[in-house]
Q: What sequence folds into this?
C-alpha cells in the first residue's frame, strides 16, 4: 500500500505517488520537488473537488516530511490543513496523517499526544484494511511508551501488533520485534535480546523500512558492546551512521555522531569521545539534542570538566518532567548522582540515585544503571531502601558481568588480608582478638580496620558490618 487511493488518474496523482515513494526511501529533497511540481500543476487547473483533495494530499505529504526533519510546527499545520479537507471515509490518508502527527508531537516532547495520534493511526489503518501501517503505528506508540518509562505498555502494544498480523511475517513486525528486544535489553534479559533484534532487523530489511532497520541496529550495537564484542559494536554503529548520512537531516546526523561517541566512551576510547564533545560544544547552540547532551555530560564527568554539568542536567530534567519522559529523568538523576559523588557530596548523590531507583523499580529498568559500570557501586547500598529488590538485582548483574564479588568492585578493592580482617569485624571480634587470630600486632590490626573503613566509605565497625552484608559478604 504505497500509493494512496485516487478518484482519477492524472499527472498530479502520479507526481504525488512518486513523492510518497521518494519519502519512503528517505529521499526527502526529491520528494519535496515532486510535491512542488504537483502543486504548480494543480494551481493552474480549474477548481474541483478532485483538485482540492489533491492539494490536501500534497499538504499531508509535505507535513510528513516536516515531521521527519523535526519541524513540528509546520508538520502540525500542514497535516491539520489536509485532514480538515479530506473526507472522513478516506481512512488511509488520515492514517498516514495521524502517524506523521504522532511523530511531530513526539519530537516536540508532547508524548501523550504522540501516543494518541499513533494509536488513532493504527485504528484508521485497520479500517482501511492496511495492516502494514496499523502494525507500524503500534510500534511507534511502543517507542514513546518506553520514553515515558512504561515498559509494560510498550510490550502490550507490540503484542497487539503481533496479534493484528495474525501469524503473517509482515515487514512492519520488524519494528515490534526490535522494540521487544529493546525492552529485554532495558531489563537486562540479554539471553532473549539478540533473537528479537536479529528477527526484527531481517524483517525490516525485507520491507525496506530504513528507520526500523536503524532502530534495530542501534540496539544490536549496544548488545554487542555489553557482550564485549567491541569491533562488532562499532561495525554495526557505523552501518547506522552511513544510512543516516544518506538522509541529509542534520538532527539525525547529530544523533548518530553522539551515539558513536557514547559507544567510544563505554568501550574506554575517551580520547575520541572527548574530541566529539569539543566539536559538539562548538555547535551545540540554544536547542541541543537530548541524547547528545547526556553523552556530553558523561564525557565531562569522565574527563573532570564538571563545571557545566549541573546546568545541563537541570535543563534536561525540567524538560523531561514537563514532557513526561520518565526514562530521560531517570538517566539525568543517575548522572546527577555521579556528579555529586565526584564532588564528594555523598548524601546528595545517594538522594539522586534513590529518586532514579524509585522511578525504575515498577517497570524493571536495570540496564540504565549497569551502563554506568562500577561508578555507582559505592552508592547503590546507600540508596537500597528506595528499591531493595532492584538494587540487589543491579549488584548481582554487576557481579556477573565482572566475574567479581561486589566487594571486589569497590573503588579501592580490599586486599586478601583486609578481607580476612573484615570477616572478623563482621564476626564481632575486637582488635586484640583480630590480632591474635591472624598472628599480627594490635597496631597492625588497627591499621587494617582503619583502611577497611575508608575503602568501604563508612565511619565505624557496625557500619562496616552492615555495608559488608549489603554487598553480599
A:
Amino acid at each position: 500500500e504505497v500509493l494512496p487511493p485516487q478518484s482519477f488518474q492524472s499527472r498530479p496523482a502520479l507526481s504525488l505517488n512518486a513523492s510518497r515513494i521518494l519519502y519512503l526511501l528517505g529521499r526527502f529533497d526529491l520528494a519535496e520537488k515532486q510535491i512542488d511540481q504537483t502543486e504548480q500543476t494543480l494551481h493552474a487547473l480549474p477548481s474541483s473537488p478532485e483538485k482540492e483533495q489533491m492539494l490536501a494530499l500534497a499538504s499531508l505529504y509535505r507535513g510528513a516530511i516536516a515531521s521527519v526533519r523535526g519541524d513540528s510546527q509546520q508538520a502540525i499545520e500542514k497535516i491539520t490543513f489536509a485532514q480538515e479537507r479530506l473526507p472522513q471515509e478516506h481512512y488511509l490518508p488520515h492514517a498516514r496523517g495521524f502517524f506523521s502527527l504522532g511523530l511531530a508531537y513526539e519530537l516536540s516532547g508532547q508524548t501523550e499526544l504522540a501516543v494518541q495520534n499513533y494509536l488513532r493511526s493504527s485504528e484508521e489503518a485497520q479500517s482501511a484494511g492496511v495492516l502494514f501501517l496499523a502494525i507500524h503505528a503500534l510500534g511507534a506508540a511502543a517507542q514513546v511508551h518506553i520514553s515515558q518509562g512504561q515498559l509494560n505498555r510498550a510490550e502490550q502494544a507490540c503484542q497487539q501488533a503481533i496479534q493484528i498480523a495474525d501469524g503473517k511475517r509482515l515487514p512492519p513486525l520488524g519494528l515490534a520485534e526490535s522494540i521487544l528486544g529493546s525492552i529485554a535489553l532495558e531489563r537486562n534479559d540479554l539471553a532473549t535480546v539478540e533473537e528479537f533484534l536479529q528477527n526484527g532487523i531481517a524483517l525490516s530489511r525485507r520491507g525496506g523500512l530504513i528507520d526500523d532497520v536503524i532502530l534495530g541496529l542501534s540496539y544490536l550495537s549496544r548488545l554487542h558492546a555489553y557482550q564485549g564484542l567491541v569491533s562488532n559494536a562499532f561495525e554495526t554503529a557505523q552501518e547506522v551512521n552511513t544510512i543516516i548520512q544518506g538522509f541529509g537531516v542534520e538532527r539525525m546526523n547529530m544523533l548518530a555522531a553522539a551515539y558513536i561517541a557514547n559507544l567510544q566512551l563505554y568501550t574506554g576510547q575517551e580520547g575520541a569521545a572527548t574530541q566529539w564533545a569539543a566539536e559538539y560544544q562548538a555547535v551545540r547552540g540554544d536547542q541541543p539534542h537530548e541524547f547528545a547532551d547526556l553523552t556530553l555530560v558523561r564525557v565531562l564527568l569522565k574527563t573532570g570538566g564538571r563545571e557545566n554539568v549541573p546546568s545541563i542536567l537541570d535543563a534536561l530534567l525540567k524538560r523531561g518532567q514537563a514532557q513526561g519522559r520518565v526514562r530521560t529523568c531517570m538517566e539525568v538523576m543517575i548522572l546527577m548522582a555521579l556528579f555529586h559523588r565526584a564532588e564528594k557530596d555523598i548524601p546528595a548523590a545517594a538522594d539522586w540515585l534513590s529518586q532514579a531507583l524509585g522511578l525504575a523499580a515498577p517497570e524493571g529498568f536495570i540496564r540504565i544503571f549497569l551502563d554506568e559500570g562500577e561508578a555507582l557501586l559505592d552508592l547503590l547500598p546507600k540508596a537500597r531502601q528506595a528499591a531493595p529488590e532492584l538494587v540487589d538485582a543491579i549488584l548481582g548483574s554487576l557481579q556477573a558481568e565482572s566475574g567479581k564479588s561486589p566487594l571486589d568492585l569497590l573503588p579501592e578493592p580490599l586486599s586478601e588480608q583486609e578481607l580476612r580482617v573484615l570477616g572478623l569485624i563482621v564476626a564481632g571480634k575486637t582488635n586484640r582478638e583480630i590480632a591474635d587470630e591472624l598472628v599480627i600486632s594490635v597496631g597492625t590490626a588497627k591499621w587494617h580496620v582503619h583502611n577497611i573503613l575508608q575503602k568501604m566509605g563508612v565511619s565505624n565497625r557496625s557500619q562496616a558490618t552492615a555495608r559488608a552484608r549489603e554487598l553480599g559478604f
